[in-house]
Write a structure and sequence with these properties.
Order of helices and strands of chain B: HHHHHHHHHHHHHHHHHHHH
Radius of gyration of chain A: 18 Å
Helix content of chain B: 55-70%
Distance between the termini of chain B: 103 Å
Order of helices and strands of chain A: HEHHEHHEHEHEHHEHEHEH
Bound molecules: iron/sulfur cluster
Largest interface: A-B, 72 and 69 residues
Structural class of chain A: alpha/beta
Oligomer: heterodimer
Number of strands of chain A: 8
Radius of gyration of chain B: 28 Å
Shape of chain B: elongated
Mean pLDDT of chain B: 92
Shape of chain A: globular
CATH topology of the largest domain in chain A: Rossmann fold
Largest sheet of chain B: none
Structural class of chain B: mainly alpha
CATH architecture of the largest domain in chain A: 3-Layer(aba) Sandwich
CATH class of the largest domain in chain A: Alpha Beta
Number of domains of chain A: 2
Strand order of the largest sheet of chain A: 2-1-3-4
Strand content of chain B: under 5%
Number of strands of chain B: 0
Number of domains of chain B: 2
Number of helices of chain B: 20
Number of helices of chain A: 12
Chain lengths: 258, 442
């Protein structure tokens, strides 16, 4: 599988219909790279003409903005928007809810107007259109799966249904945690917490959340955000449950089922 | 004697409305100490929010039992206030139950409904007192509420119980006097009433003059109590019964994940990339403060939020940081903001204009450690029944810390440097961004 890069595509006179925004975690984090690859495999299989920005992509500025560094955010936004506009990008898909939120909600008033969708939304519509067909005897059939809502998809952008619809297609048993959807508990990574030690307290947030997930007796925790994935994986390890529960991105679950 | 009562009434109503007006003016001024923020779009959506969130108390219904109980107190309180209109006219003109002769059938129905509501309010307030003080509900036990806030909440419940009891006792005495053909009570027979007829049993053997005194005392205490309540509101968390409405109207309508753009910073960054666009030095604007340190740096809407806060703690019980024992409590952020706004207001009242007190919202009220714990998850915003956004204040204070004070945990400083130099929060070269694609080719 060859991953098309925007600069090459344009140089060869091609005009990809979709930009896959990989994000920093998706590019550099070894665990998250697997999610990126899984999603790219799906795009490839479905035959969508897409491209990535490759080494030209920069951090959207989400963590610096939320830490309070508006200058750095504006610098990132300026450069990214310039690049995206130069390539005349119209539609963007990303597997990171933080990139999704910034591209979709924060770039327009800075001059970056694109149709931005999250990968769970794209997967849902591909399933609905019949372009993705899940194997009848997929590996997750009958398995108990619980979905952990990402704050930046859920409360921030009101996306609760798309990830659940995709999971339903796996023919597993979807179970909800006590705090879900609008009341979902954060994994602890947002607001640039991912990049620093947690403040003093009596419990780590990811421990609290993974405990809740363990209580559902699910064998798979489905995530839709690279940071949630990392936090939940660590939480499950801290709870010493890694042999019983696996944390997987929705894209990985689908890639393994087609 | 009659005329004396009328004069006394006139004086008390004038004093109470005057005082209320003065305090509300101060609060209005305090709110507008904040930065101007123009909110004048999407009127239809905003009115819808007022209907659903403020009148309909939509978010309260996340817990239907509590929502219904709260709705009872709220409706009871508002509807019984129709009765206040008659009381005021009676007080000013010396009449007794002035509406009774004009709408005889409806009148009894109304008073009976008021009595039903009054009794319900008493019962619900008792339940709330028990809930608040005896049941183990964490958000009522938190350190945020130590001292005055707990007293405030209990006091309001007690006052409501007392006011409603006075109303019922007054009607009870009135009924007996009507049956005893005592004028002016018997001029328009309206009794017996739904609830107070049971209360009258308590006073059955009382002589007429004692009943008249009882009725008068209750009448006076009831209306004076209401005047006192009116003037207590602006000092209390119960201001939300008024401010929940404008606060729902002015609530942000953009997706919760979107942060407020700092236009000034956007411009500066634009000029650094495209110096040809920068204004010449003569036009250049003087340094603007980045982020917020104190009340005047916040938007007026943040301060309206603070005055609207009912200190219920729904935000903090949804907050992942607060629930895992971190110092951060979004409720405390709101209470601190209101306290500091009041403090600045008092300073202005005393000195004519603000005199530096070497204090500020950030540092003296809200500590860095609190702000550092926020995951920007928006759970507090989602949970708040009266459309408050604590996160908006947290972000502005964080902006001040980072941009004005260069104060950030060392890991964040390193992350900023990485983003600046490598365009990623980790120390990887941009060229390595495509490493994963190479492995995919295999
Ligand atoms: S946004 Fe911050 S303050 Fe609000 S609930 Fe989440 S962590 Fe707590
Ligand atoms: S901010 Fe809202 S949820 Fe939090 S205490 Fe105040 S009223 Fe309650």
């Amino acid at each position: 599988m060859k991953i098309p890069v925007m600069a090459d595509e344009k140089a060869q006179g091609r005009d990809p219909e979709l930009l896959f925004w990989v994000g920093c975690a998706g590019s550099f984090d070894q665990r998250v790279q697997k999610i990126t690859k899984a999603f790219a495999t799906i795009l490839d299989k479905v035959g969508i003409h897409y491209a990535i920005l490759g080494s030209e992509e920069m951090c959207t500025g989400d963590p610096v903005r939320r830490a309070g560094n508006e200058f750095m955010f504006q610098m990132m936004a300026y450069q990214n928007i310039n690049l995206l506009n130069q390539y005349q990008v119209k539609k963007i898909v990303t597997a990171c809810p933080h990139c999704f939120n910034t591209l979709k909600n924060e770039y327009p008033e800075l001059g970056g107007n694109y149709e931005v969708i999250h990968h769970t939304q794209l997967l849902q519509s591909l399933i609905d259109e019949g372009k993705i067909v899940v194997n009848d005897s997929g590996p997750f059939k009958g398995k108990k799966i619980t979905y952990h809502d990402s704050c930046y998809l859920g409360r921030s952008n009101n996306i609760y249904e798309a990830p659940r619809k995709v999971l339903e297609a796996l023919d597993g048993e979807l179970v909800e945690m006590k705090r879900c959807k609008k009341n979902g508990l954060c994994c602890g990574a947002g607001g640039a917490q991912m990049f620093k030690e947690e403040e003093k307290g009596d419990q780590r947030i990811n421990l609290e959340r993974s405990n809740e997930a363990i209580k559902t007796n699910a064998s798979i925790i489905a995530s839709a955000c690279p940071f949630c994935n990392t936090m939940m994986t660590d939480g499950i390890k801290l709870n010493e449950k890694e042999s019983e529960i696996e944390v997987m991105d929705i894209a990985e679950l689908i890639a393994k089922s087609i | 004697m009659e005329i004396l009562q009328q004069i006394l009434f006139l004086v008390s109503i004038a004093v109470s409305i005057g005082l209320f007006y003065k305090k509300i003016k101060q609060i209005r001024r305090n709110i507008f100490l904040g930065q101007p923020e123009l909110i004048n779009d999407h009127y239809a959506k905003r009115w819808k929010n007022v209907l659903l969130l403020a009148f309909g108390q939509k978010k309260m219904f996340k817990n239907p039992t509590v929502a219904f109980l709260h709705l009872f107190v709220y409706l009871g309180f508002i509807i019984i206030n129709i009765e206040i209109l008659e009381i005021i006219i009676d007080g000013l003109t010396g009449s007794h139950r002035i509406f009774a002769p004009y709408i005889p059938a409806l009148y009894s129905f109304l008073i009976n409904s008021f009595e039903f509501l009054a009794a319900s309010v008493i019962i619900v307030c008792l339940i709330f007192l028990i809930r608040r003080n005896i049941l183990p509900i964490l958000r009522f036990k938190s350190a945020d509420l130590k001292g005055w806030p707990t007293k405030d909440a209990n006091l309001i419940l007690l006052v409501e119980i007392i006011l409603m009891s006075l109303f019922l006792t007054m009607n009870a005495a009135d009924s007996i006097l009507q049956q005893a053909n005592q004028e002016p009570y018997s001029l328009h027979k309206t009794s017996p009433f739904l609830i107070s007829s049971y209360v009258s049993i308590l006073f059955s053997g009382w002589p007429t003059h004692m009943l008249i005194i009882l009725e008068r005392i209750c009448w006076w205490l009831h209306i004076l109590g209401i005047f006192v309540f009116l003037n207590y509101l602006p000092w209390s968390k119960h201001l939300h019964i008024l401010l929940a409405f404008p606060n729902a109207f002015y609530a942000r309508l953009t997706p919760q994940g979107k942060l407020h753009n700092m236009h000034s910073v956007q411009q500066e960054v634009l000029y650094s990339f495209q110096p040809e666009l920068a204004p010449t030095s003569s036009e250049a604007v003087s340094h603007i403060k980045f982020g917020a340190k104190d009340i005047p740096d916040l938007s007026w809407k943040n301060i309206l939020d603070a005055y609207t806060c009912t200190e219920c703690g729904r935000c903090s019980s949804a907050c992942p940081a607060n629930q895992t024992g971190k110092l951060l409590s979004p409720r405390k952020i709101m209470m601190n903001t209101r306290d500091r706004a009041e403090e600045i207001g008092k300073n202005i009242d005393k000195n004519g204009s603000f005199r530096d007190d070497s204090k500020s919202l950030l540092f003296d009220y809200i500590k860095e450690e609190e702000l550092r714990a926020c995951t920007t998850c928006n759970a507090c915003v989602e949970a708040c029944p009266v459309s408050i956004n604590p996160l908006d204040i947290i972000i502005q204070l964080r902006r001040y810390l980072v941009m004005e004070q260069s104060s950030a945990p060392s890991e964040w400083t390193a992350m900023f440097t990485n983003v600046e130099n490598n365009f990623a929060p980790w120390k990887f070269s941009p060229d390595n961004r495509i490493n994963w694609t190479k492995e995919s080719e295999g």
